[in-house]
Amino acid sequence: MPSRYRNVVTPLALLAAVVLLYMENPWFFPAEGSTERAVATALFWALTVVVLFLMFEDRKSPGADVVEVEGPAFTRYLFGNTRAGLFWLPIRIFVGFEWLTAGWEKLTGAGWLDGGSALLGYWQHAVAIPAAPARPPVTFEWYRGFLQILIDNHAQGWFAWIVTFGEIAVGLGVLLGVLTGIAAFFGATMNMSYMLAGSASSNPIMFAFAVGLMLAWRVAGYYGLDRYLLPILGVPWGSRVATASPPIGASSG
Predict the structure, then answer these.
(1) What confidence tens digit (pLDDT) does each residue in 147-173 have?
(2) Alpha helices, DSSP H only, in the chain?
(3) What is the pTM of this model?
(4) CB of 203 within 8 A of CB of 191?
(5) How far apart are CA 213 and CA 207, in angstroms?
(6) Which distant-in-sequence residues (6+ apart) come within 8 Å of 71 by Cβ?
(7) Quick one: 5 exposed, middle or buried, by C-beta within 10 A (0-12, 13-18, 19+)?
(8) Distance from C-alpha of 168 to C-alpha of 149, rounded to nearest angstrom
(9) What is the pLDDT of residues 93-117, one digit of tens each?
């Protein structure tokens, strides 16, 4: 990140935190659907996108590869040592088969690839608002709005294919150790989507395991195809870190 951007990131991030504090603080909580909440939400996400972009660009700056806070030896071993792949192997087997069987049931069952009626019923149940004092399945209004858009546009037909084959792909990726971290990321995304729709089931456990696999992406699939894939592919999103220039007049000897 160019040096002129570095001093901008902190105030932007703090401003985003203040906006979120305003939105979530129960004493200043703006009403759902109000103009104030819509403006605050748009401002928060705009700031978040800008901050993330600038932080991503910071990977190119001098000193970006310096670890300022050293982690404990156990976590370094667990997330960075290939021998720790034995720890992640049973977790991969559990998570992989959970996703694979879930996708297979949708592939061979009714209500998914034959029109998506089962998915539509799931969405309709999620967006329904029961009579008080019962609470609706969906807590966040923005997610209810997202599901309602899918319902109104009859998206269940094609979306059911994405869910079905997405679950199978995640299951195979985690089980075989093929780009394990990426597979776990998409699995965690689906877990989070189900939980946002009010479905707990095994999703919290699966999400926790997926986070671990993402953190251990370098070694989690070592006892799998990642042992051969990752050295070949390398890190395609890597970027050369700039070297800080020595002070003018500094002696080289």
Answers:
(1) 999 999 999 999 999 999 999 999 999
(2) 3-24, 35-57, 73-80, 85-108, 117-127, 141-152, 156-176, 180-196, 203-215, 226-233
(3) 0.78
(4) yes
(5) 10
(6) none
(7) middle
(8) 26
(9) 999 999 999 999 999 999 999 999 9
